């Protein structure tokens, strides 16, 4: 059967009116995924709209999640200077392999995220690589916010409330992929940075300003979880966060001869581990 579903007898005329009313309210929301992705009003200038496989504007205090193919390039844009993308990546084939923030800063001998930085798992593989970065203000130390933190600072923490915590939003996204809160590792935070002082204290660096972006390259099939919430070290007393734009398109994973592949012996080993795993799994 094609066309509209029938409404039984005249008894459901109110349902027909309700359906007509609902359809009359069709509109484009300010925060939404765009389907098809080519319909995004914010297509990156160096990408053809038809190449896009994911396009979305994530609300302040919102989250998103998606499974992406190996070789997908994911661009995060901060249009206002107030976005803060708390990102977790998980091997979509074997979700027991996930982002390991400690190894991500330890193995490359670099605590501050930037272009060329691999996002490593605890299995010695590169799950993703930062391949472009115009912000340079990020954080691999603090992780995302918790309900206890938000209740103490803002007086609210529920996901549907005015000040949702990042950990709860990441858990909601993970649940849609069959994962539990215990499966979620600490997150990396993009667009709001901190630095470590000589005495070990964390100093707030904040945003690089409006209009910056970061691009991640998926080195394996990934579950990508993103919560767009204020950074835990943000000194502002109010819950301040701006929209986050997300676009993705098919590209190719890092391979020998690429700029970042052999930047250090440790990175080369991680990429070779990733390639060997992908070939063995037929990815």
Please give a handful of descriptors for the protein shown.
283 residues; alpha+beta; 6-stranded antiparallel beta sheet; 26% strand; globular; DUF1989 domain-containing protein; DUF1989; UAAP1
Walk me through what this model shows.
- With 283 residues, the chain is α+β, with helices and mostly antiparallel strands.
- It has one domain.
- The chain contains 5 helices and 13 strands.
- A 6-stranded antiparallel β-sheet has the order 1-13-3-11-6-5. It has a 5-stranded antiparallel β-sheet with strand order 2-12-4-8-7, with helices on one face. It has a two-stranded antiparallel sheet with strand order 9-10.
- A hairpin with a 5-residue loop joins strand 9 and strand 10.
- The mean pLDDT is 93.
Task: Provide a brief overview of the structure.
The chain has 283 residues and is α+β, with helices and mostly antiparallel strands.
Q: Note poorly predicted spans.
A: none
Q: What is the radius of gyration computed over CA atoms, rounded to a whole number of angstroms?
A: 21 Å
Calculate the mean pLDDT score and round it: 93
Range of strand content:
25-35%
SSE order and pairing:
Blueprint: H1 13-24, E1 52-58, E2 62-68, E3 72-78, E4 85-91, H2 101-106, E5 118-120, E6 126-133, E7 138-139, H3 147-154, H4 166-175, E8 188-190, E9 193-196, E10 202-206, E11 212-218, E12 222-228, E13 244-250, H5 265-281
Antiparallel strand pairs: 1-13, 2-12, 3-11, 3-13, 4-8, 4-12, 5-6, 6-11, 7-8, 9-10
């Amino acid at each position: 059967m094609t066309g509209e579903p029938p409404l039984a007898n005249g008894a459901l005329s109110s349902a027909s009116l309700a359906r007509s009313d609902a359809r009359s309210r069709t509109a484009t929301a300010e925060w939404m995924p765009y389907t098809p992705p080519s319909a995004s009003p914010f297509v990156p200038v160096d990408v053809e709209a038809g190449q896009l496989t994911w396009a979305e504007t994530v609300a302040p205090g919102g989250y998103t999640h998606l499974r992406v193919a190996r070789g997908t390039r994911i661009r995060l844009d901060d249009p206002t200077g107030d976005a803060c993308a708390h990102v977790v990546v998980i091997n979509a084939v074997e979700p027991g392999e996930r982002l390991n923030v400690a190894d991500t800063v330890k193995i490359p001998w670099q605590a501050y995220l930037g272009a060329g930085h691999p996002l490593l798992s605890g299995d010695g593989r590169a799950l993703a690589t930062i391949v472009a970065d115009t912000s340079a203000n990020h954080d691999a130390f603090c992780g995302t916010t918790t309900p206890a933190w938000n209740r103490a600072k803002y007086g609210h923490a529920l996901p549907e409330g005015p000040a949702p915590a990042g950990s709860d939003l990441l858990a909601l996204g993970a649940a849609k992929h069959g994962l539990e809160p215990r499966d979620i590792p600490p997150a990396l935070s993009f667009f709001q940075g901190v630095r470590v002082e000589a005495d070990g204290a964390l100093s707030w660096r904040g945003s690089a300003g409006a209009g910056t972006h970061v691009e991640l390259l998926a080195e394996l099939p990934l579950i990508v979880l993103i919560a767009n919430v204020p950074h835990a070290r943000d000194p502002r007393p109010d819950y301040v966060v701006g929209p986050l734009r997300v676009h993705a398109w098919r590209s190719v994973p890092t391979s020998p001869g690429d700029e970042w592949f052999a930047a250090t012996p440790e990175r080369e080993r991680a990429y070779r581990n990733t390639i060997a795993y992908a070939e063995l799994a037929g990815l």
